[in-house]
Specification:
Order of helices and strands: HEEHEHEHEHEEH
Strand content: 15-25%
Largest sheet: 5 strands, mixed
CATH class of the largest domain: Alpha Beta
Distance between the termini: 94 Å
Radius of gyration: 25 Å
Shape: globular
Number of strands: 7
CATH superfamily of the largest domain: Glutaredoxin
Oligomer: single chain
Structural class: alpha/beta
Helix content: 40-55%
Length: about 200
């Protein structure tokens, strides 16, 4: 009788054990496959020398901005930030605000891009007295055109691109917060030593 009970327990446990073993092999395979598919949806950020995209998006007042036309002429810094009003994004925007007279003096236009809706951008601009254009990109059309990856939270990664006459001439793929303005000025001066 004891042998029969042991055999019954063994038969009942082995299928469960085998099912768990199959899961141990299947779940990592599913995870790797999903990870590969997700990584395929993230394009590489625009490289130095790449032409900029031609598209339009609304600013903080809801007015469409033809980014293709803006980026085609002169110098423009396009920077991406996760969320208006957060500590790091406010520091980054205020750094550019404080450097804005120097940037403007060199002919650099500044454009900030985030997923925030127009009303949140207007509030962010007004609270921090930001003198430059903020673009609302809730569908990630601009971010995807620049190849800006999204964070695990779904927000845009902090990145910056300096553009001259429609071509990326400098990029900062791990953009800073407190020194974004100074970093941009330094990049401009290194690219234009005669005009510094």
């Amino acid at each position: 009788m004891q042998g029969f009970a042991t055999e019954a327990v063994a038969r009942a446990t082995i299928p469960g054990y085998l099912s768990r073993m199959r899961l141990c092999f299947v779940l990592p395979l599913v995870a790797v496959t999903l990870g590969t598919l997700l990584s395929l949806t993230q394009a590489d950020p625009l490289a130095v020398g790449a032409p900029t995209p031609h598209l339009s998006a609304p600013d903080a007042d809801g007015t469409p901005v033809d980014l293709g036309a803006v980026l085609a002429k002169g110098w423009t810094l396009v920077y991406f930030y996760p969320k208006a009003g957060t500590k790091g994004c406010t520091a980054q925007a205020c750094s550019l605000r404080d450097s804005f007279p120097a940037l403007q003096g060199k002919g650099v236009t500044v454009i900030g891009v985030s997923l925030d809706p127009v009303d949140a951008l207007a509030k962010f601009r007004n609270e921090n007295q930001l003198p430059f254009t903020l673009i609302s990109d809730p569908e990630r059309i601009v971010a995807e055109a620049f190849g800006v990856p999204s964070l695990p939270t779904g927000l845009d990664k902090r990145q910056a691109f300096l553009i001259h006459d429609g071509t990326v001439v400098w990029r900062q793929l791990d953009a800073t917060t407190e020194t974004e303005g100074a970093d941009t000025l330094k990049a401009y001066e290194e690219l234009n030593p005669a005009k510094s």
